[in-house]
Amino acid sequence: MPQFPPWRRSSPVSTEASFLFLQPTPPDPAGIVDHTLLPEALPYGLEPRHVFRSIEDVHDLIHPLNVVLQGASYEPLEDLLDRASLSGLISRTIATRLAEARSGGLVVNQFHNGNPDLIPKGVYPNDAVQRGVGLEVKASRSEGSWQSHGPRPGWFVVAQFKLDESEGIARLAREPTRIMAALLANLAEDDWSWTPAQAGRIRSGTASIRSRGRLKLREGAVWVDLTYRQQHEALLSSLALTEYRRLAPECVLAVLRSHSSSRTAAEISAPMPMDSRVAEAGILASVRSALTNLKRNGAIASPSKRGNYEAANDGAE
To answer: Which residues contact 293 (CB under 8 A, 6 or more apart)?
Structure first.
């Protein structure tokens, strides 16, 4: 019989009933989104249920590990690992499980730090490629500040997880780590912004997903924790409004150029493309903001009648 140091117990102790942090939090399958509600079909034979099973595996990994660590008098996994390593563990677990799912032959990219994480089986020599096509997996505590080392078009999975970092509360009294949502989208290169590295800094440049890319990911949610559904929908509506504002100037110009007479902001907003996630007040506010900017840029003019607008004679944007 091996002799354990006095600070280490010989076997893990069941402490789920004693500490909130060690209570299991299995994800609810009721949060799976029907594939018919997604904006486009998932690639490589993936289905929402495949992603959900990978989320289950994350929970099935972290919870028992923390029970063992507590029984051996170690710190919880969330404290043993730095934040980047914890995110890496979650994303790697999801990638490995998706590769094992019956999802059309995806395999884990065998190239060290290769992109993407998952590639089609047999497409690249030895299933390894430095940069190819496939499915990139990211895990993040953020609700939208998702970044990469470069603007990379292609399919992305973002697993948004919740880590209780409440101050003034003992770790074991905090809520356990859990996945809150799994988001999938096919991002284009212009869905990213790029901030180059500053001169003299070691840190490399950073690519961040723009609001339009975040909207795509929210629209492509394949599973959302039921307790997070309301917040997810609120973020989706906010991103939809942001995208509406971005497109509003072009739409306003199109409406004005299609009419020979001047129009008010309300008359312009009436034929504007509708989005059920954007309230009528948000549409009108977007139109008014677009009118202000277009007038400042000389693309439209205000005739003598106050509050009316028409396209400038030269049609310049």
So the answer is: 249
